[in-house]
Amino acid sequence: MNVRPDSSRPSTDQSPAIREAEVGTAEAGLRFDQALAQLFPAYSRSRLAAWIKSGDATVEGAQRRPRDPVLAGERVQVRVPDEPALDDQAEAIALDILHADEHLLVVNKPPGLVVHPGAGNRSGTLVNALLHHDPSLAALPRAGIVHRLDKDTSGALLVARRLESHAALVALLAARDIHRRYEAVVLGTLVAGGTIDAPLDRHPHDRLKRAVVEEGRPAVTHFRIRERFRAHTRVQADLETGRTHQIRVHFAHRGHPLLGDPLYGGLRRPPKGADDETLAVLRGFRRQALHAERLSFVHPVSGDELAVEAPRPADLETLIARLRRDTEANPPEWA
To answer: Global pTM?
Structure first.
């Protein structure tokens, strides 16, 4: 799959953005609306559907119905209308900036911080913080945020600071050229790493959840074991795709949900005979044990390889240290 901004448009922040992609083997045969969602994951399905209806999304320069299939090699083009400036308010919320240049930022998002304002969360979000840090981000789609992290997932999050860099970074994301590495603690003791290749879509009965669905969107997670505890495992997870809740759903599907995950069954099961301190740490960990620890990609302007790592937040650091001490004090048979 190849995705790129239209190089013929003027490089001004007020120009409409043109996105192009070539239908690959993974999208061939899909409905136009389904293929569009896979080729342009930075945009919501509702926006893509509106652009199909308005003629801003075309195949080989012609309009298609949402249900029409696409073929390998066909060129898909999306004209993204000029974005109105965000009307969200800037707020003086502290940001942990891991990398900054005139084209992009990488922010270390703390757990508990909502990324985008929404119903019931019009303030106190990462967008509000970014608008205070750099008011010019109001002119960019989603204040320049290129990808999402769940409210209770911590770690590295990428933000564009120019329309051109936003277009380039969205293209890199769609082409799977932004590499995202996570650290997680899951329930149970895994014996080996591997790959989870299981398609995801909305849960058939719960609108808040995602689920493994046979006809869902392709989703692939590669993982390896970093450390085994008595009743938990610390894993490294590398995303090949980046679906909503992907790591959380994939490990739950394997029977090893993330510790503390309120949606997917990550009950804080203590190791047998755990001491009071271990029990207190487990009871006090009230989110999914997931941290986006590393982003790596080719800088869209300089062409340099950029790798940015986010240090663990204190709650995850404390959790891992406590589980390690519990295991050392009560060595399992496999140790």
So the answer is: 0.78
